[in-house]
Amino acid sequence: MWRKLKDKVVNPNKVHQVIRERRSITIFKNKPVEEDAILAILDAARWAPSSNNSQPWEFVVVAEKRRKDAIADLYVEAYKKRADVSKDDKIRGKIYEILPYLEKELKVPPYLIVVCADPRKSKSYLIDTAAAVENMLLAAWELGLGTNWIDLTSTDFAKQFDVKKLKEYLFIPDEIVPVAIVPVGFPEQIPPPPPRWRIKNVLHKGFW
Fold first, then answer.
1. How far apart are CA 90 and CA 95, in angstroms?
2. Which residues pair with 180 in a beta bridge?
3. Which whole-number Å values give the CA distances from 32 to 184, 185, 193, in the listed order?
4. In the chain, where do the E strands start and end?
5. Between vectors from CA 142 to CA 26 and to CA 45, what angle results, nearest 5°?
6. Is the entire prediction scored with pTM above 0.90?
7. Residue 101 needs a FRET pair 20 to 30 A away by CA distance; which of 40, 79, 94, 147 works?
8. d(C-alpha 8, C-alpha 17), whole Å
């Protein structure tokens, strides 16, 4: 079996197809999305696995232009701060190069879903909520919609993002943790498949 294991899945089912075809979308069409599609995406999210079925996730669906614009401004400002603190000229230059596109990434799609978690429900609330986000991305792609996972917890960008202001804008309670922002809309451009390690590069049979 192990010798015959290949990267290409033979006759992949729908789940494998969606997993392989999904892309992170940053350029969206200015086109409305049905509310039922958002509900379907959230329904997929709530069926994610969680520690002791704690289900620590909460979702704030933002469609109002004024609030989307405010969140987009926080997004751009965080990237500017990330550039300013970077000691790598290449990283700093790349960030300033993409700044004109960043605000459109959150202002153009009709919906932003701010994914939050309640740490009181689960010690593994970040892992639990990440599973819910993954379900959202896959469900959206199956519906013909694009998304992007904007992490607010662990990256260098996240360290610069003003989560306090985000919580103020959306009246998120103090005890709740914003985990991610997921823009949802119709893709304007779909990137090519990203490179992936071959299975043999990451597989350890029986022991490392």
1. 9
2. 115, 151
3. 10, 8, 26
4. 57-62, 111-117, 146-147, 150-151, 177-185
5. 85
6. yes
7. 40
8. 11
Q: What is the pLDDT of residues 31-70, one digit of tens each?
A: 999 999 999 999 999 999 999 999 999 999 999 999 999 9
User: How many Cβ atoms are within 10 Å of 68's Cβ, its own excluded?
Assistant: 20
Please report how many Cα atoms fall inside a 13 Å half-sphere around the Cα of residue 25, on the Cβ side: 25
Rg (CA), the chain: 18
Closest CA to 166 of 102, 35, 78: 78
Q: Give the chain's domains with CATH numbers.
A: 25-189 (3.40.109.10)
Q: Report the candidate in 204, 34, 194, 181 with the shortest Cα–Cα distance to residue 112.
A: 181
Structure tokens at 111: 């919906």
* Look-up of token digits 């519906």: 143
- Extract the tokens encoding 206: 């029986």
Res 114 pLDDT > 90: yes
In angstroms, the CA 125 to CA 65 distance is 30
DSSP state of 178: E
With H, G, I as helix, E, B as strand and everything else as coil, classify residue 174.
coil
Amino acid identity, residue 82? Answer: R
Contact 74, 161 (CB under 8 A): yes
Token pair listed for 14: 């729908």
Residues 6+ apart with CB under 8 A from 202: none
